[in-house]
Amino acid sequence: MPTWNMMIMQDPANMVSVYMSITHNTIMEVMIAIATFISVLMIFLLKNKATNRMITQNNKMEILWTILPMIILIYMASPSLQLLYIMEESNTPSMTIKSVGHQWYWTYEYPDFMKTFDSYMMTEKSQKKFRLMDVDNRMIMPFKIFTRILCSSTDVIHSWTIPSLGVKMDAMPGRVNQMIMYPSMMGVYYGQCSEICGMNHSFMPIVVEIVKTKMFINWIKVS
């Protein structure tokens, strides 16, 4: 869960979100270094007009600040391309879960187990831990199992988003998007619809609970 005054990404819960966090931190470090260098250089040049004239007429300096940004961009692109490859990596899923967006709640279908249920936001009085973030029926996923998530919508565009799991998938009417998830940490993870979908857009939270395989099987049998 995010907390007040949080300045970084949420703690990652799988390998995709780990790589996303590393890539984000790397690019931020480069951007801060560039911004600091340019700020110091600008202050120095404003105070030294003679030096300023010498730099603007310096061909070697022109070549340097043309080539250097290219090297920096290549350095920043390398982890980004690696992250895209990891996100698009395809593995044979062991099970499938379908998430369907509505105005304004989610429906989860487990076609392998013939199970379907709706997930509504709980009333404010019923939420003990996080305001406007808990639901009456959580989406349950087994721990360390390749799971295919299918996402669609019945009315307008929604977005199924779990920051800690590195997931942001559009739910579009008439189209099914998919991705493979491999949760590597057990726990309860919170998210919200990230696409403005109408009056109650802010009141359709997402809660995913990662449990052991045995607990998942018992949950399927009981419910």
TrEMBL record:
Cofactor note: Binds a copper A center.
Transmembrane segments: 27-46, 67-87
Membrane association type: Multi-pass membrane protein
Domain Cytochrome oxidase subunit II transmembrane region profile: 1-91
Swiss-Prot/TrEMBL keywords: Copper, Electron transport, Magnesium, Membrane, Metal-binding, Mitochondrion, Mitochondrion inner membrane, Respiratory chain, Translocase, Transmembrane, Transmembrane helix, Transport
PROSITE patterns the UniProt entry points to: COX2, COX2_CUA, COX2_TM
Compartments in which it is found: Mitochondrion inner membrane
Cofactor: Cu cation
Alphabetical list of Gene3D superfamilies matching this protein: 1.10.287.90, Cupredoxins - blue copper proteins (2.60.40.420)
UniProt keyword Repressor present: no
Biological processes annotated in GO: ATP synthesis coupled electron transport
GO molecular function annotations of the record: copper ion binding; cytochrome-c oxidase activity; oxidoreductase activity
Name of the protein in its database record: Cytochrome c oxidase subunit 2
Subunit annotation: Component of the cytochrome c oxidase (complex IV, CIV), a multisubunit enzyme composed of a catalytic core of 3 subunits and several supernumerary subunits. The complex exists as a monomer or a dimer and forms supercomplexes (SCs) in the inner mitochondrial membrane with ubiquinol-cytochrome c oxidoreductase (cytochrome b-c1 complex, complex III, CIII).
Classification via NCBIfam families: CoxB
Domain spans labelled Cytochrome oxidase subunit II copper A binding: 92-222
Catalytic activity from the UniProt record: 4 Fe(II)-[cytochrome c] + O2 + 8 H(+)(in) = 4 Fe(III)-[cytochrome c] + 2 H2O + 4 H(+)(out)
Principal place of residence: mitochondrion
Functional summary from the UniProt entry: Component of the cytochrome c oxidase, the last enzyme in the mitochondrial electron transport chain which drives oxidative phosphorylation. The respiratory chain contains 3 multisubunit complexes succinate dehydrogenase (complex II, CII), ubiquinol-cytochrome c oxidoreductase (cytochrome b-c1 complex, complex III, CIII) and cytochrome c oxidase (complex IV, CIV), that cooperate to transfer electrons derived from NADH and succinate to molecular oxygen, creating an electrochemical gradient over the inner membrane that drives transmembrane transport and the ATP synthase.
InterPro entries the record matches: CcO_II (IPR045187), CcO_II-like_C (IPR002429), CcO_II_C (IPR034210), Copper_CuA (IPR001505), Cupredoxin (IPR008972), Cyt_c_oxidase_su2 (IPR014222), Cyt_c_oxidase_su2_TM_dom (IPR011759), Cyt_c_oxidase_su2_TM_sf (IPR036257)
Taxonomic placement: Eukaryota, Metazoa, Ecdysozoa, Arthropoda, Hexapoda
Record Pfam families: COX2, COX2_TM
GO CC annotations, alphabetized: mitochondrial inner membrane
Family, per entry: Belongs to the cytochrome c oxidase subunit 2 family.
